[in-house]
Structure formats: structure tokens, C-alpha cells
Amino acid sequence: MNCPATRWAKWKRRSSCEGQRANFDTARSNRYFERVNLADFQEALLQQMERKTHWAWPAFTGGLVRKDKLHIHLEQEWDVYVRDFPVMVGRAYVQCPVAEVRRELAENLYEEETGGLAAGRPHPELFMMYPKGLGMNLARFDQVELLPAARAYRGFLDDATTSRGWSVAAAIATLFIEGTAYERHELDDNAPARPQPPLEEHPLAKHYGLPVEYLALTKAHRSVEGEHRKAAWRVMLDHVPVIEREPVVTALGQAVDAWRAYRDDVAEKCGVTRDTLARTG
């Protein structure tokens, strides 16, 4: 089975040879190949996002993680990306030469940094309501020691959002970090949508006793994420230059791999093993 990158290479070679053999409308041909490449680009992005799953996640959503270990998960999330997520979006913004894309990123950044469009407060502040509502020691969040794979994942996020150009930065910040394995639904109503149970059924409320009023970040995400997902896909499909599509797909694959390794470390530190899940399943 040919992967999208392989097909792109074949199309490039074929179009080049055909251009040498005959004098034809190269502009029209280029538009055709761009459309074909765009369909493959979209599918390649979707396939990478559909890899954003982890074997241990049912333990976190099913209440199988001991409550006295749950702080590890929240602390690592906070230090790896939550605290600085607005900065990562801002990095994509300042690198981008396309005004329309900057406007999309600016709206996202404004909401994340201020909550001015929906949440009323900065999203990182709302995240901290989780540990506060669970009675955790908030001072721990000022001195988090990242696990090895968490440190590697954060290093990848910093590199991808600062050193690889605006297309990769936007893909990682707005498509990958904010996105889920259910991205196909954003482009196809017939594809499964991300489950959104009532707030009372949220794992932190159902299994750990978090009062629903402390789920302000979850409520904010539900009110703005639909538009954020659409904006992320508009940026990717309407504005990423053809020459930058392959690096974007490559970066997305690297992000999934780094994220999975990070979640492996968190699961281990929280006492979750595959054997544990197998016994409880």
C-alpha cells in the first residue's frame, strides 16, 4: 500500500517527465496535482491524528488511577504544555506571513490567553481549578519535575513551534495539541464525533468527586473548540504551501510518537500497567 508521501513523489516524477515529452498547459496541470496532493495531505493528517490514542487512557477516564496519584497526571500536563499553550500559538502567529492565518491564530490566542471570547478567564487559570477542586497541593505545580519522556515531548513541542516554520508550528499547536483522534468528524459529519457526556459524567467528577463548577475549562472548551477545530483545518488545507505539506505530516507523526511515549511515562508513574487494565477489563 503506497503512503501519501510515496504517491506525491511518484506524481512529481510523472508530471516532470510528461512536461519534458509534450508542450501542454502546465498551469492547469499544476492545479490538478495540487488538488490531488491536497486530498492526500488531508488524509495523511487525519491518519496521524487517528493515532492519537493511548492504551492507558481508559484507566484515567475510568477511575482506575489512585486519587493520591492523580496529581502526577495533572502536574505533567500543566508543565508540558497547558501553562505555555498560549505561547505556542503565539509562536505560530509571529512566524506567519499570511494575514488570514494570523487572524485565525490571533482569535485562538486571545481566547487562550484571556478567555475574552467565551471562558472569561485565561485557560491555564481554568485548568488549575481541577487540582484546586480536588484538594491538591497547588504549590507542587510551581516546581514540577518533568518525567524523562515528558521532557522529551516538551522539547519536541518547543522545537516544532520555534524552528520549523509557521506551517509546522500551527499544525502542532492548533491541530495536534488541541485536536483528538476524532478529527475526521470535523471534515465529515458521518464520521464518529468526540463523545461529550454531561459534565456530571466527566471522569474527574464521576470518579474523584470534583464539583462540577470546577469544570470551567471543560465548559469553555466545549463552547469554543468547534470553531477552533474548523479554523485549524482551514489553516492546514487552505494556506499551507504545497512544499511544506510533507514536513507538516512528518512533524505530526513525530508529535504522536513523542506524546505516546510521554503518556507511557505518566501511566507508569501513576501505577497503571497493561496487566492492570487487562484484569479490570
Task: Describe this structure as you would to a colleague.
This protein is globular. About 6% of the residues have low confidence. It has a single domain, classed as Heme Oxygenase, Chain A (Up-down Bundle), CATH 1.20.910. By secondary structure, it is mainly α. Helix 9 packs across helix 10 and helix 9 runs antiparallel to helix 14.
Detail the topology: elements first, then pairings.
Blueprint: H1 4-21, H2 26-49, H3 57-61, H4 70-82, H5 85-95, H6 99-114, H7 123-127, H8 129-133, H9 148-162, H10 166-177, H11 184-187, H12 203-208, H13 216-239, H14 242-269, H15 274-280
Helix pairs in contact: 1-2, 2-14, 5-6, 5-9, 5-10, 6-13, 9-10, 9-14, 10-13, 10-14
Percent in strands = under 5%
Number of domains: 1
**CATH topology category name:** Heme Oxygenase, Chain A
Number of strands: 0
Q: What's the alpha carbon Rg, rounded to whole Å?
A: 21 Å
Please identify, by name, the CATH architecture: Up-down Bundle
Which residues form runs of ≥5 with pLDDT under 50? 8-24
Q: Helix- and strand-based class?
A: mainly alpha
Percent of residues in helices comes to: 55-70%
How would you briefly describe this protein structure?
Helices cover 69% and strands 0% of the residues. It has 281 residues and is mainly alpha-helical.
Key structural traits:
0% strand; Heme Oxygenase, Chain A
